[in-house]
Amino acid sequence: MAKETEKAPPEQPPAQAAAPSPFKGLLPVLLMSVLIAAAAAGGGYVTGRMLTRTAQAKPVAPGEPQPRTTQASEEHFYYHRLEPIMANLSDARMARYIRTTPTLVIRPEDKDAAVALLENKKPEIKGWMVVYLSGCTIENVRGPDNLKRIQREIMDGLNDKLWPDQRPLIVDVILEDIAVQ
Fold first, then answer.
1. 33-63 residue pLDDT tens
2. What is the mean pLDDT of residues 125-147?
3. Which residues are bridge partners to 102 per DSSP?
4. I need a surface site. Which of 69, 110, 134, 173 has the fewest CB within 10 A?
5. Judging by beta carbons within 10 Å of its beta carbon (0-12, 13-18, 19+), is residue 157 exposed, middle or buried?
6. Contact predicate 85/129, CB 8 Å
């Protein structure tokens, strides 16, 4: 009987199938992500190298004057600086104003004719520019795109006013010392 009371080893439950690892499906996704990131980085590197090779700029010493040139021809321009202009912006309270010093860019072959007319019509030019700038709002003068548009409109307006039905003599307008208050 003593042998009968011996304990039999406990019965083990039937072996369960091994549970699938939650990381097993993640490995291919992780591997693809790494490959895509590496390809994108490599493409960006190659593109950056190609762009910097084609757009190398020549270093310029600070303060060294640079004549303005066009890409088609290496012609130099004459710069005619006008008097500073101040105008109230179109604002309900009339509390904001713009102040700038315009510089007109003129081809050298047109310099004599243009400067003579510009000096002769100085009060009319200043009056026209004050009226033009007074029609602008704060939103019209904010940001580089708006300032480029203003430069273009001043150039076109002065060319139309000073040389109607002729070839325009002003090729660009530079607005220096722009202050909007």
1. 888 888 888 777 777 776 665 444 445 444 4
2. 91
3. 175
4. 69
5. middle
6. yes
